[in-house]
Design a protein that fits this description.
58% helix; mainly alpha; 334 residues
């Protein structure tokens, strides 16, 4: 589950990126205490990987495995060091470039991640759908939607049969306010992969914002539970200040699941909103429903307004969308 500022339940994509050593002497424990970077060096798996690298510095699989191990141990600097070394040795390795870019992105270094991706693309004159799609995702997160769209389309030219690529282009178009074109791409994604829960959730969001509530509800039900679907539609209605409609959907959510926490929280919030609605004390500001939807990677992406409004100091932005059986937003392509 991921949370947005509204209580929505996920029920909206992601790249699947990749001689024995002399025995240690008694100084090793002391060295580990003095240098935190050596933490875990005594682990059998890590020692085996380091032994492989000592015997062959060009063992790419061992280098990547060790980097991933450092990631899991929350030692990001060491992971980056190994990814960078591997990319220096194998500059044409798409797997390595993607692994480094994704790790940098997780470290909130999206600009550097994009630089890595673009540099790697120069190693592939015929193009790489994986790298182009990652570039599009990174550009989306930087708010450069037109450049991102070009990257997503380049990826699709190379791999038009991939559901995730259509989903990502659709998400980009939705961020640009091109709802109808976005719906077309989400439908293409679902046609390729009928169980693509992220595409179903994205399609539902596009339909809901476009006021096709019954179709949106049907898509959310395909991706998750009935309670989550009704709650998600209620979150959209809260954004649109359609309080009676929101209450109807929340009642339906609780009828499907009496203990459904997001709906319970949204119902409480709705009661508060109805009480304070006449006291909108600040100028209205335009708000985008998609800003309530976190990306697969947990980053909320800014986008052009889709036309809803909210009082400047209201609490509507606290509603929660619940997305089950997947998350909303982009996919790192498989």
């Amino acid at each position: 589950m991921y949370k947005t500022k509204w209580l929505m339940v996920a029920g909206l994509g992601v790249f699947g990126a990749a001689c024995s050593r002399p025995a240690r002497t008694a100084v090793v424990p002391v060295r580990r205490m003095e240098n935190a970077q050596d933490a875990g060096e005594g682990d059998l798996a890590a020692r085996a990987l380091r032994a492989r690298l000592a015997a062959n510095a060009d063992d790419l699989d061992a280098r990547l495995a060790l980097a991933q191990m450092y990631e899991k141990r929350d030692q990001p600097e060491l992971a980056v060091e190994h990814y960078r070394f591997a990319l220096q040795r194998f500059p044409a390795s798409t797997e390595t470039a993607l692994a480094l870019a994704k790790h940098l992105r997780q470290m909130d270094q999206s600009l550097e991640a994009l630089r890595v991706v673009r540099a790697s693309l120069t190693q592939h004159p015929k193009g790489s759908w994986e790298l182009q799609s990652m570039a599009g995702i990174l550009l989306d997160e930087q708010g450069k939607f037109e450049d991102a769209e070009a990257a997503h389309r380049s990826a699709l030219k190379l791999a038009p049969e991939r559901s995730a690529l259509h989903n990502n282009l659709g998400y980009n178009l939705l961020l640009q306010g091109q709802g109808k074109n976005a719906i077309t791409e989400f439908e293409k994604a679902i046609a390729i992969e009928p169980r693509a829960s992220r595409a179903h959730n994205n399609l539902a969001a596009a339909l809901a914002v476009g006021e096709y509530s019954s179709q949106a509800l049907a898509e959310w039900k395909k991706a998750g539970s009935a309670a989550a679907a009704h709650n998600n539609l209620a979150a959209v209605f809260l954004e649109q200040e359609r309080y009676d409609d929101a209450r109807t959907e929340l009642s339906a959510a609780l009828a499907a699941d009496r203990g459904f926490a997001p709906a319970i929280a949204n119902l409480k919030l709705l009661d508060e909103l109805v009480g304070i609605a006449p006291q909108a004390i600040a100028p209205t500001r335009r708000v985008n429903f998609l800003r309530r939807v976190a990306s697969t990677f947990g980053t909320v992406i800014g986008a052009k307004s889709l036309g809803t409004k909210v009082a400047g100091k209201s609490r509507k932005g606290e509603a929660v969308a619940a997305m089950e059986s997947g998350k909303a937003g982009k996919e790192l392509n498989r």
